[in-house]
Design brief:
- By secondary structure, the protein is α+β, with helices and mostly antiparallel strands.
- Helices cover about 35% and strands about 20% of the residues.
- The chain has helices at about 1-15, 65-75, 90-105, 125-130, 150-155, 210-220, 235-250, 255-265, 265-275, 330-340, 360-365, 370-375, 390-395, 430-435, 445-455, 500-510; strands at about 55-60, 80-85, 110-115, 135-140, 170-175, 175-180, 195-200, 200-205, 225-230, 280-290, 320, 345-350, 380, 405, 410-415, 420, 435-440, 465-470, 475-485, 485-490.
- The protein has an 18-stranded mixed sheet, with helices on both faces. A two-stranded parallel ribbon has the order 7-14.
- A hairpin with a 5-residue loop joins strand 18 (about 465-470) and strand 19 (about 475-485).
- The longest helix has 16 residues, at about 1-15.
- About 45% of the residues are buried.
Length: about 525
């Protein structure tokens, strides 16, 4: 028994004291095209090239359209596909996109994949099979030394370095068109998971902004923190045979074929194929953390987005925020207070305790609810039964089971003029630890469209509205108002969450972990 304990302790010591970053010696050099390509512009209804310096945008709040867009772009690719994600699942959505990528690689298209290592520990062999293709190059951002079952153990023991992750998301084709926003790749992001559904938002871009997305991708792909997968794992000849056979069998299943048919039977797909895709044209700026952010102290702002965003985006009339992980720090609270004193209307949509997958985040956000409401900030929280009937009725839902909804979108609307979309949450982890990316698009028309989306998300059938109930002595309590199953309801504590969740939140507030969330 002592020998077993000794071996375990030794293993933990080795993992804890191992090289905390696997990295190449230094950042690689890379080629950067001087301007975006026009090779895919003919899929749009309007002349994109004539719109410069503006780019064209197509909103992808619909989950199926967002997946369809990536697949169609992969089908249309002629030279290159670059994709950068926090997670890439091996479920039907992942397989459908992977099939499009492999087909493109078979045509000679160069595929470059950058994936964060947070969820890859048990998938090395299947990734190695794909990485074996001569036209596919996969790199992993900030990988662990240990793989498999010890992957998460090493991250936990080295949270100061391996806990720093790449959260950026982009899908770029031929330096012509791109899809970016809040979604990773997996069923849960595209409304295909029978148990859970992430309410999210992406956007398709065509034009000069894509060149900036390409540069950002190349910067990360060339980073010393991006390690060639061949140095992490390789597949044997036998593993290659088994992997390819298993993959082919999954694509041949009736359920997968049905799913593919539904995804590609969309009005968006029809417009794209008929080259009638209608776009919003606007100027935009792209902002992102540098990859070296994960190698610097959390309070070192050298590689952070913060401080780089133009002051012209300062709200003067209204600020609409959609964010799933919302923990306003003291600086943000002071900022909100200043805006409210100037008459700026502020509305925030985030997760309820019932819908969130981050109870710790909700616990610390709940500290600020009363103060925000007293300022006059409008607070909304999505609840798990949002859009349940629509999701249940969709054609791909063969199980006819209602998934549980949660918010995952990260967006803002400033003064009805600027639409902000990207990967960044409003919590300490996004601010200080992970790398993130956002775009600011200057378009009144697109902002109007996105405000309509916000109004739908915050309807009482989809989200609680939080309000203060105060007595004559200014003693106030927060109440949650909603319409559930056609009836108006009011809750007095964290919505309709269960007792266990409420107790978890209560005790979570005691622990000093806010900076890690």
């Amino acid at each position: 028994m002592k020998n077993v304990i000794g071996m375990v302790l030794a293993l933990f010591f080795i993992l804890g004291c191992s090289s905390k970053h696997i990295e190449v010696k230094e950042d690689r050099s890379f080629y950067f095209p001087k301007k975006s390509s026009s090779v895919l512009y003919h899929y749009a209804k309007d002349n994109i090239a004539a719109q410069g310096p503006r780019s064209g945008y197509y909103p992808l709040e619909n989950h199926l359209d967002s997946l369809s867009a990536r697949i169609l772009l992969a089908y249309a690719a002629t030279k290159s596909i670059k994709l950068q994600y926090y997670t890439f699942h091996s479920d039907p959505a992942g397989k459908l996109l992977l099939k499009a990528l492999v087909d493109a690689a078979d045509r000679g298209v160069k595929i470059e994949v950058l994936i964060d290592d947070i969820a890859l520990g048990d998938h090395d062999h299947s990734i190695a099979v794909v990485n074996d293709h001569k036209n596919i190059s996969i790199r992993v951002f900030n990988p662990t030394n240990a793989r498999g079952a010890l992957h998460n153990v090493e991250i936990g023991l080295n949270s100061d370095t391996l806990g720093r992750r790449m959260h950026n998301k982009s899908f770029i084709v031929d330096n012509s068109m791109a899809v970016f926003g809040g979604r990773n790749i997996g069923d849960i992001y595209f409304g295909l998971n029978k148990d859970d559904y992430f309410v999210d938002n992406d956007i398709l871009a065509a034009g000069p902004l894509v060149n900036k997305l390409t540069y950002a991708f190349n910067l990360y792909f060339a980073s010393k923190f991006s390690v060639d997968f061949m140095h992490i794992a390789k597949a044997s000849v036998e593993e290659l045979k088994k992997g390819k056979k298993k993959y082919a069998e999954s694509l041949a299943s009736p359920e997968f074929k049905h799913f593919k048919k539904v995804v590609l039977n969309r009005p968006f797909v029809d417009a794209f194929r008929k080259k009638k895709l209608a776009l919003y044209f606007a100027k935009a700026e792209l902002y992102y953390d540098g990859p070296n952010k994960i190698g610097t102290a959390p309070d070192d702002r050298t590689y952070h987005i913060k401080g780089k965003i133009d002051k012209k985006y300062m709200p003067k009339k209204s600020l609409v925020i959609v964010n799933p992980y919302f923990i306003p720090d003291d600086e943000m609270m002071a900022f909100f207070k200043t805006l409210r004193a100037q008459g700026v209307e502020i509305s925030v949509l985030t997760n309820s305790l019932e819908s969130t997958d981050g109870e710790w985040v909700y616990a610390y956000y709940s500290f600020k609810q009363e103060a925000l409401l007293k300022m006059g900030v409008k607070l909304y929280e999505i609840y798990p039964s949002a859009f349940s009937e629509a999701l249940k009725a969709q054609a791909y839902n063969l199980h006819k089971k209602t998934p549980r909804s949660a918010l995952h979108a990260k967006a803002m609307i400033i003064d009805g003029r600027y639409f902000v979309i990207g990967s960044r949450n409003l919590d300490p982890r996004s601010r200080n630890l992970n790398t993130e990316m956002v775009a600011v698009i200057e378009s009144v028309e697109l902002s109007k469209h996105e405000k309509k989306v916000f109004d739908i998300l915050t309807e009482p059938e989809h989200a609680y509205e939080l309000k203060l109930v105060c007595d004559g002595n200014d003693n106030c309590e927060v109440r949650w108002y909603a319409v559930i199953e056609g009836k108006e309801v009011v809750f007095d504590s964290d919505g309709d969450a269960g007792f266990t969740d409420k107790m978890f939140v209560f005790f979570s507030r005691i622990l000093p972990v806010e900076d890690l969330l």
